[in-house]
């Protein structure tokens, strides 16, 4: 089978990352909390937002994972490079593509959300991540750093395990999508869940102010967690895994 071209890989990463941010953050911004005329919430809540993020990754991993590997996340790209599942030469290209795609998704989401009178990306938070007084549950910087590192590390463990050549074939996107759903169920009350620097940056640009001042944590912590998993997975499991050209959706 012919290896996907660089342009195809970039296109696949762009589509997947765009869909993750637009679908996941869009669910949070547009449908997370919705009041009916009686002021009763009919929004999808934490569970619905968690499912939205998981479904974006599941669907795009099947759709384009066989082209680019289905990363959609700079931390995943770095973690896979550390684990020697992707060549380091691809890392800068993937990360730039992911950040551009996330930012484009954030811009389009802002255009949609701004169609409602009184909407403010700054005042609403625009699905941005935060700690301290910007944490949904008021959690400290340390608590938020720990949860982001741990959740990202386990996300990478699932990705590395699901694409291990000993794993059941063709099911990797399901495991990865469900793991991201679980990650959001744990992380939303603490940080609004990042585990993905591109996702965080893609909305922080538009939330501005405090969101941008805190976004550094949601760049650093996911990368640290991903690197920990990338270094340790093979040693823990004596694993072999797929290279980028094989992708998560095929898992032959």
Automatic annotation (TrEMBL):
The chain crosses the membrane at residues 12-35, 41-64, 139-159, 171-191, 211-236. InterPro entries: Aquaporin-like, Aquaporin_transptr, MIP, MIP_CS. GO terms for cellular component: plasma membrane. It is a multi-pass membrane protein. It is found in: Cell membrane. Its main location: membrane. One of its GO terms (molecular function) is water channel activity. Keywords: Cell inner membrane, Cell membrane, Membrane, Repeat, Transmembrane, Transmembrane helix, Transport. The keyword Cell inner membrane applies. It comes from the Bacteria. Belongs to the MIP/aquaporin (TC 1.A.8) family. This is Aquaporin Z.
